[in-house]
């Protein structure tokens, strides 16, 4: 199985110099996790959802993107692609052929491969991760900050009765993100000790106004942005079975429940692709 058999060839990309707002619109419209940045058809970087959320005030693509990203060739094996993504915690790999962007292969493409392989291993322990949950009234900006600090791509949401009511992911945050423009004032006075009413004090007080444009999350509870139709799996579910559920539901993660239907862990797609790795 080769990368060329699973990669997406019709790649959505942006050209530098370009506009950050265009990237945000692309991520909102498509739900993809990252956009390659090209210059004269050559790959120069990649911008991800994390970049947009972490560098909320940055507008220049050259400062938003990761320059010289790790790439892979179309004739590399799926196992090689999975090993690189697992090692560096990537969600996508640009596919470069003779210096040109030929396509992109993502975790979602590898999940399709895992679903086809009919792996019978159970997910318990080896592929699942411990996680935490948030209350459904938690404000979205706080959720975004918690996700940034924790490094989790998705977090389960509970109601006041401690029941699982939804799940929030980076993709959902981007869907609700907006561009906020504001004006800030900087004080450039020389710090004179004269009385504020003297002519010298008035003369030495200078201010400058400048515009700020940043990606902002609305101040509303997470329950208004979360996915409520949660697909869960039991602890003894098989690897390929879970991959198929992810593919059909178009999700990046699955809550794992016990016999009492209580959530005990979470299964991320990035862990599931380890079944393809050379050193699994």
From TrEMBL:
Keywords: Amino-acid biosynthesis, CBS domain, Methionine biosynthesis. Gene3D superfamilies: CBS-domain. Residues 7-63, 65-122, 127-183, 226-280 form the CBS domain. InterPro entries: CBS_dom, CBS_dom_sf, Diverse_CBS-Domain. It comes from the Archaea. The keyword Amino-acid biosynthesis applies. GO terms for biological process: methionine biosynthetic process. Transmembrane segments: none annotated. Pfam families: CBS (PF00571). This is CBS domain containing membrane protein. It comes from Methanolacinia petrolearia (strain DSM 11571 / OCM 486 / SEBR 4847).
